[in-house]
Amino acid sequence: MTPLPNPYDVPALLKEIEANGMKLSEGGGQVRQQCLAAAQALCYALETPMESIIRTHWAEQAHHAALCTENDLHLFDKWEEAGSGIKASSELSELTGSDPSLLARILKHLAAMGTIYETGPDQYCPTPVSKALSMQVHRDGFPTSFDLAGPPVRKLHEYLAMTGYQNPQNTSIGPYQYGHQTPDDFWTMISKRPEMSVAVDNSLAGRKSHRLTWMDHGFYPVEDNLAGGVSGEEEAVLLVDVGGGTGTNLQEFHGKYPGLHGQLILQDKPEVIKQATGLDQSIRTMAHDFFTEQPVKGARAYYMSSVLHDWTDEQCAEILANLKFAMTPMYSKLLIHEFVIPDTGAHWISTALDIMMMAVFSSRERREQDWRKILEGVGFRIIKIWTAEPGAESLIEAELATEIPEHTTHTLTEADGASEAPDGIAQSGTEELVERRDVIAVESGMASIINADPSSHAPAIEASEPESESSPKTILLSGRPRLVVS
What we know:
486 residues; alpha/beta
């Protein structure tokens, strides 16, 4: 029997760090990732259980509060504007117009958590992290993470208990509505607050900045696999960015491949497209709801980046079906830029986002078998899954199924050695994508859950009728009010 690995083998971790540390000067993302993983494992190994618990209970929550306060004060960007460098807490207090005593306490914890450097008594120096947080694309992550995602994440455990610990599967009445006490879903809420829509787009762009993307050379062979087979017709469409927001990804694609033949089309809802300004003239914008028929027929590729993880399996199947009927067999490709969580050794970035997706969208990040089940269920076959580094999104390359799929996963190495290995067994594609355990009724802005499955382990949930249109409707669990939506 093979002995189980010891995650607390401190001497082995130190040797691994030393070995990778010697190679860091040579560069290379994989070496850095391996060294980082070993260093993080070493921290977990050296930390006592009580230190781990206190860090979770106290330090991380306090760090969030300090960062949100910093963001509201525009501390880091004002620090940068003032010339960066070492500054006393009193100087930073003057820059932000805050109470010196208050800011000194905030700065102390930011330094203790490594966000800034402490160079002396009440003296601090910026770090690469604080410099990054002075940029708008990263600063906008705060309202997205804490104002929009924060309430449902904090209340997720209550919602799961309320529903008998069933996987959330409905976007109309899920953890998001429970956390915010609203009938609105995420997209409805931000549509009522245009500034939040911009913040969400900036947050997504910031998350992907300074990281290898599928468009970078050495990740996905754009010229060979995509551009090489595009039709020579003048009106040929090379790439349709479906649900592409304000066009950040398509603008990046055009910047890296400006000479490729074929149109580039950005699609999103009308209110989002209105905000897609400053794009290259070669990029066409088009208002489109991906839950309706795809109007662009026979494009070389239809691309979705961080779209499907916002939706349940059933909704993903609907979105993909609308694309399927617009595609040309043996020509059109489907490119999905999403996380593919491995069966073992998953990176914390993908697992954390999975919990966020559960809380905010009643959806999920997916494993390879999940992607195969959805795609094959609506008539696609996966050609390859391209992965560059741990903790980053993969690119799923798919096409319309014309034969039994040959499953292949492709992981890039430092030397860009393409390794392919059969993985998995083809599923029939006739399986039920989602087992529905409840019926959701939403009318006149009111939401209720009606348990329709007598075999379900989830306790019955009842909805009281409102006294008037303006009265809230209360969801009851075993006679206790748990969710109020109006």
